[in-house]
Amino acid sequence: MRWRHELRKLVLLGVTLGVLVNLPFFTKEYSQLLSRGAIFDEIQIGMSSTAATDQLQHARIWCGITGGRSDECYFSDLTFNYLIRVDYKTNKVVRKSLAPRLKFESRFW
Fold first, then answer.
1. Rounded Cα gap, residues 14 and 42, in angstroms
2. Cα(56)–Cα(36) distance, rounded to whole angstroms?
3. pTM higher than 0.70, yes or no?
4. Fewest C-beta in 10 Å: which of 5, 34, 37, 73?
5. Alpha-carbon distances, residue 69 vs 31, 55, 72 (angstroms)
6. In angstroms, rounded to a whole number, what is the distance separating the alpha carbons of residues 73 and 63?
């Protein structure tokens, strides 16, 4: 009977340590997802496309604009989908769009 009590304590300690060790990784990932709205707000219509690209890359948002393959950048966080469009003829940001996500899709499972 005593060994069951010790086993429960050991399992609980292992689970607790596992959660504590992995918590910084999940916290960092979710904080980056939550902070993408701030980057969207910083980019303004009429801003140069190079400045917008630099801000997106600094925020670690990789899309068609940052790769030079497209004139649109789609990205999302836990609550919204974002679109930024540039016109390479004028070298300016010409459109920004924000739409709520209809369902939560986890990136982890």
1. 43
2. 9
3. no
4. 5
5. 28, 17, 9
6. 5
Q: Output the 3-class SS for the chain.
A: CHHHHHHHHHHHHHHHHHHHHHHHHHHHHHHHHHCHHHHHHHCCCCCEHHHHHHHHHHCCCCCHHHHCCCCEEEEECCCEEEEEEEECCCCEEEEEEEEECCCCCCCCC
Q: Which pair of tokens denotes residue 15?
A: 């689970």
pLDDT in tens, 3-49: 666 878 887 888 787 777 776 666 556 655 566 888 999 999 999 99
Structure-token match 């969207």, residue found? 40
Mean pLDDT of 57-74: 84
Distance CA 15, CA 27 (A): 18
Structural domain boundaries in the chain:
2-100
